[in-house]
Write a structure and sequence with these properties.
This protein is mostly beta strands. It is built from no helices and 5 strands.
Length: about 55
């Protein structure tokens, strides 16, 4: 399963910045805590499980 990371409002896939916004909605995005987020701001999705810090 392909997933990307959202760190400081930037999207990354395979440790490279994902600049294009094409198909970003088809990729599952995670933040530093591995919580499911949206692709643009890294906000936790409604219903996503939060991890303990």
């Amino acid at each position: 399963m392909l997933f990307g990371s959202v760190i400081r409002e930037k999207m990354y896939i395979y440790d490279r910045e994902f600049i294009q916004d094409i198909n970003a909605g088809n990729i599952e995005w995670r933040n530093e805590n591995f919580e499911r987020t949206n692709s643009h701001m890294g906000k936790i999705l409604d219903g996503a499980q939060k991890q303990l810090s």
